[in-house]
Design brief:
Blueprint (H helix, E strand, L loop, with lengths): L9 E10 L2 E11 L4 E5 L6 H8 L7 E6 L2 E2 L13 E4 L11 H10 L10 H7 L1 H5 L10 H13 L5 E5 L7 H16 L3 E6 L2 H7 L2 E6 L2 E7 H6 L1 H8 L7
Parallel strand pairs: 3-8, 3-9, 6-7, 7-8
Antiparallel strand pairs: 1-2, 1-4, 4-5, 9-10
Helix pairs in contact: 2-5
Length: 246
């Protein structure tokens, strides 16, 4: 397959990590190629968020390797990893409610330090016009969907090569979720690769080029988004009754 002739943008090989004596990830291997949307699905407590944090060394991978953009980041200090072109939108958004929309966005650039490229604020305001309209408004007064958009825009300020999204649909109404997922597609079309962690397996797999299923810290299944949508085990465990509307 052509995919195998490309160099991965992100590659985990045999990664295990632990919180104290508790195993969080065990022998996880996965790849993300430039220009893809790759999703990681699994139940609560499967280790999905831990996997994202392990990329930044919190917790540190106990064994295995993590390579991003041809750089082995397995043992790099956390503060040295984001400037390489990785950005995380954490679960729960974690915006600063007392600061304005504009101030929150600027923090996304400042966090990457001197090595960050100049942010294309005009592009981000075109992508998220509601944020431009409310750029002087306190972030805490935004709706949940608008706060999620702000968290994504903040992460994009440093023009990352790989955007990590942790449960972007959490707590949002179905129509807002559709809007967020449409924005994710636009972000990839503009040149940023996306690794998406989601409990909303149906929406995530419809969006994704490829996906992985994580169960108790182990990768149990992998395939294209459509292959996993059609997999009886995935349908039973994560999709329930899926309608033709998705």
């Amino acid at each position: 397959m052509a995919e195998n002739r490309r160099s991965p943008l992100l590659e985990l090989t045999g990664v295990s990590s632990y919180y104290g004596p508790v195993r969080a990830l065990e022998d996880v291997s996965l790849v993300v190629y430039q220009g893809e949307i790759v999703t990681l699905i699994g139940a609560n407590g499967a280790g999905k968020s831990t996997l994202l944090m392990t990329l930044f060394g919190i917790p540190r991978a106990f064994k295995g390797s993590i390579v991003f953009a041809d750089t082995d980041i397995t043992h790099l200090p956390t503060h040295s990893i984001a400037p390489l072109g990785l950005a995380l939108v954490p679960e729960g958004r974690r915006i600063f409610p007392g600061m304005t929309v504009s101030e929150n966005m600027e923090l996304g650039r400042a966090a990457l330090g001197k090595r960050s490229r100049v942010a294309n604020t005009d592009y981000l305001y075109d992508l998220f016009p509601i944020l431009k309209e409310r750029r002087q408004q306190k972030a805490g007064t935004l709706s949940g969907g608008e706060q999620q958009m702000l968290a994504i825009a903040r992460a994009l300020m440093g023009q990352p090569r790989l955007l990590l999204l942790d449960e972007p649909s959490l707590g949002l109404a179905p129509m807002v979720v559709k809007k967020i997922f449409a924005l994710i597609r636009s972000i990839v079309q503009s040149g940023t690769t996306v690794f998406l962690v989601e409990q909303n397996a149906n929406q995530a797999l419809q969006l994704a080029d490829r996906g992985y299923v994580l169960v108790n810290g182990l990768v149990r299944l992998t395939g294209t988004g459509q292959e996993l949508l059609a997999n009886p085990e995935v349908r039973q465990a994560y999709l329930g009754k899926v309608t033709s509307e998705g």
